[in-house]
Specification:
With about 60 residues, this protein is mainly alpha-helical. It has one domain. The chain is about 65% helix and about 0% strand. The protein has helices at about 5-10, 15-30, 40-50. Helix 2 (about 15-30) packs antiparallel against helix 3 (about 40-50). The longest helix has 18 residues, at about 15-30. The protein starts with a helix and ends in a 12-residue tail after the last helix. Pfam families: MT0933_antitox. This is Kanamycin biosynthetic protein.
């Protein structure tokens, strides 16, 4: 089992909190870089949310 699989298993059921954490971390990076890499940070946030299931509603498909 890879490290990513272990993390996913540990975070399962806490998708909302994961999404909030990803948003908070991205906002911190944007603040520290004064928005210079905002597009890259946003892309990274989206991909992390997809990877960890934080882009899904509790009982539905991924949000658009």
């Amino acid at each position: 089992m890879s490290a990513l699989d272990k993390i996913k298993k540990m975070l399962k059921g806490h998708e909302q909190q994961v999404g909030k954490g990803i948003d908070k971390a991205g906002d911190m990076v944007d603040d520290r870089t004064q928005g210079k890499y905002k597009g890259h940070v946003d892309t990274g946030q989206d991909r992390l949310k997809q990877q960890f299931g934080a882009d899904r509603d509790q009982d539905g498909p991924p949000r658009a």
